[in-house]
Design a protein that fits this description.
The protein folds into two domains: 32 residues, no CATH class; 278 residues, Beta Barrel (Porin). It is built from two helices and 17 strands.
């Protein structure tokens, strides 16, 4: 269940001391009178102090965006070798991904986004596997293609609505799209009570390969705690970010990841399903030299890993957990 959001109202009190009109003594004197000393002191307090310039990170240095923008990202992640709990086997994983998102009308009341993501997973299982009938590794390589076109409409200054669809193809390389496809959709509302908080909330539902339809809350928010610190959530990931300066940002992130791959004819269970769930917790460092270019690297822990092998009808054959292990990764994002 999503955590409740508590809004903080920041009140800034600006105070100033007005200059006083003091009468000077009519008697001439070589030394300044007490009234003149008070006037000098009061004028010192009345001297205006230039306001501090607001902090602007490089990601926000170009506020006006064109009618159409394209975002392109590439990423690489490596999970170090770890032992399986109930067998003598081990596993390490390398993932490579690339995504693109074309956005129409980013500054208008009607916005259309077409995000697409492609990812490959390379599993290196070693030793005797208790997960499969013959002790072989369940799979070596798999791929996933994810498409989620969506539309968002602004109703007024504070409210909006969004709706979108989901198409996913996931399996080993020679699997047909009909055997590896999942479909779904999502819809909800957007609420922006002030410039520091944007909240999107709704429901998402999609089919799974040889499994029941999954219904989840569709929650996304971006909460600016101060001019340098933000708390955000998108999908199943939660992030706390702090800008060190105009270019560098540190982040703490936690996520829940789930992948299901259709297996081919040569798998230990032909046409079965391999399921992979994990909870990564990472510390991230982002470098933004320009509003249109971002580099990010991360290191952390796969705090939870669970693997499951199902038969072609979705009946579980066996499952296995892996011990926590370290992860490292990097990504590059370019905005056109």
């Amino acid at each position: 269940m999503p955590n409740p959001l508590f809004l903080l109202v920041f009140i800034v009190l600006a105070t100033s001391r007005p200059a006083c009109a003091l009468e000077q003594s009519q008697q001439p004197s070589q030394q300044p009178s007490q009234q003149q000393e008070l006037l000098s002191l009061d004028n010192t307090y009345a001297t205006p102090v230039p306001p501090r310039a607001p902090f602007i990170h490089n990601r926000d240095s170009i506020p006006d965006r064109p009618p159409v923008i394209l975002l392109w990202e590439t990423r690489q992640e490596y999970s170090l070798k770890t032992k399986l709990d109930t067998s003598d086997g081990s596993v390490e994983i390398t993932r490579s991904g690339s995504s693109a998102n074309i956005v129409f009308g980013p500054e208008y009341d009607l916005q259309v986004s077409i995000p697409i993501d492609y990812e490959t997973s390379h599993y290196r299982f070693r030793g005797m596997m208790g997960l499969t009938p013959d002790g072989r590794y369940p799979l070596l390589d798999a791929e996933q293609l994810f498409l989620a076109p969506n539309v968002e409409v602004a109703i007024n200054e504070h409210y909006g609505a969004f709706v979108g669809g989901i198409v996913s193809l996931a399996g080993q390389y020679d699997i047909s799209s009909t055997d590896s496809a999942s479909y779904g959709g999502f819809a909800g509302v957007r609420y922006k009570p002030d410039p520091s908080l944007t909240l999107r909330a709704g429901l998402a539902g999609f089919t799974q390969i040889e499994d029941d339809v999954l219904i989840l809350p569709a929650i996304q928010f971006d909460w600016k705690l101060d001019e340098r610190t933000r708390l955000s959530a998108e999908g199943s990931e939660l992030r706390l970010e702090h800008d060190l300066d105009e270019s560098w940002t540190i982040k703490l992130a936690a996520a829940w990841e789930m992948r299901s791959f259709r297996l081919d004819d040569n798998a230990p269970i032909p046409h079965g399903v391999f399921r992979d769930q994990r909870i990564p917790i990472t510390f991230r460092l982002e470098y933004v030299p320009h509003a249109a270019l971002r580099f990010e690297t991360w290191a952390g822990l796969q705090a939870y890993q669970h693997y499951q092998l199902d038969d072609p009808n979705g009946v579980k054959y066996r499952d296995e957990r892996a011990e926590p292990t370290a992860i490292i990764g990097l990504s590059v994002l370019v905005i056109f």
